[in-house]
What we know:
Layout: H1 3-18, H2 22-29, H3 33-40, H4 49-59, H5 63-67, H6 70-73
Helix pairs in contact: 2-3, 2-4
Amino acid sequence: MTVKDAVVLRFQQICELRRIKPNELANISGVTPSTVYSMMDSKRRDLSVITIKKLCDGLDITLGEFFSTPEFDNLEQEIR
Protein backbone atom coordinates (compact mmCIF):
# COMPACT_ATOMS: atom_id res chain seq x y z
CA MET A 1 0.00 0.00 0.00
CA THR A 2 1.28 3.45 -0.89
CA VAL A 3 1.10 6.51 1.35
CA LYS A 4 -1.52 7.99 -0.96
CA ASP A 5 -3.61 4.81 -0.78
CA ALA A 6 -3.39 4.84 3.02
CA VAL A 7 -4.48 8.50 3.20
CA VAL A 8 -7.48 7.88 0.94
CA LEU A 9 -8.43 4.74 2.86
CA ARG A 10 -8.23 6.61 6.17
CA PHE A 11 -10.48 9.43 4.93
CA GLN A 12 -12.92 6.89 3.53
CA GLN A 13 -13.02 5.05 6.87
CA ILE A 14 -13.65 8.23 8.83
CA CYS A 15 -16.34 9.40 6.42
CA GLU A 16 -18.06 6.04 6.51
CA LEU A 17 -17.94 5.98 10.31
CA ARG A 18 -19.41 9.49 10.52
CA ARG A 19 -21.76 8.96 7.56
CA ILE A 20 -20.24 11.86 5.66
CA LYS A 21 -20.18 11.99 1.86
CA PRO A 22 -17.22 13.47 -0.05
CA ASN A 23 -19.18 16.65 -0.82
CA GLU A 24 -19.94 17.11 2.87
CA LEU A 25 -16.28 16.56 3.76
CA ALA A 26 -15.33 19.26 1.28
CA ASN A 27 -17.93 21.69 2.64
CA ILE A 28 -16.97 21.29 6.30
CA SER A 29 -13.28 21.55 5.41
CA GLY A 30 -13.44 24.65 3.23
CA VAL A 31 -12.14 22.93 0.10
CA THR A 32 -13.85 22.33 -3.20
CA PRO A 33 -15.58 19.01 -3.86
CA SER A 34 -13.24 18.55 -6.84
CA THR A 35 -10.29 18.64 -4.43
CA VAL A 36 -11.73 15.73 -2.43
CA TYR A 37 -12.72 13.75 -5.52
CA SER A 38 -9.33 14.27 -7.19
CA MET A 39 -7.60 13.14 -3.99
CA MET A 40 -9.61 9.92 -4.12
CA ASP A 41 -8.82 9.38 -7.81
CA SER A 42 -6.50 6.38 -8.11
CA LYS A 43 -4.72 7.99 -11.09
CA ARG A 44 -3.57 10.96 -9.02
CA ARG A 45 -0.49 10.16 -6.96
CA ASP A 46 0.43 13.40 -5.17
CA LEU A 47 -1.30 14.80 -2.11
CA SER A 48 -0.83 18.12 -0.41
CA VAL A 49 -0.15 18.13 3.32
CA ILE A 50 -2.11 21.38 3.47
CA THR A 51 -5.16 19.65 1.95
CA ILE A 52 -4.85 16.77 4.41
CA LYS A 53 -4.65 19.31 7.27
CA LYS A 54 -7.75 21.17 6.04
CA LEU A 55 -9.71 17.91 5.81
CA CYS A 56 -8.58 16.94 9.30
CA ASP A 57 -9.61 20.37 10.58
CA GLY A 58 -13.04 19.88 9.03
CA LEU A 59 -13.33 16.51 10.75
CA ASP A 60 -12.10 18.06 14.01
CA ILE A 61 -9.14 15.69 14.33
CA THR A 62 -5.43 16.36 14.57
CA LEU A 63 -2.88 15.20 12.05
CA GLY A 64 -1.52 12.95 14.80
CA GLU A 65 -4.91 11.30 15.25
CA PHE A 66 -5.27 10.91 11.50
CA PHE A 67 -1.91 9.25 11.01
CA SER A 68 -1.97 7.10 14.18
CA THR A 69 -3.27 3.92 12.58
CA PRO A 70 -1.73 0.57 11.63
CA GLU A 71 -2.09 1.44 7.92
CA PHE A 72 0.53 4.16 8.29
CA ASP A 73 2.73 2.20 10.70
CA ASN A 74 3.01 -0.70 8.25
CA LEU A 75 3.79 1.22 5.06
CA GLU A 76 6.66 0.00 2.93
CA GLN A 77 9.73 2.15 2.37
CA GLU A 78 9.27 4.70 -0.40
CA ILE A 79 13.01 4.80 -1.15
CA ARG A 80 14.06 2.01 -3.48
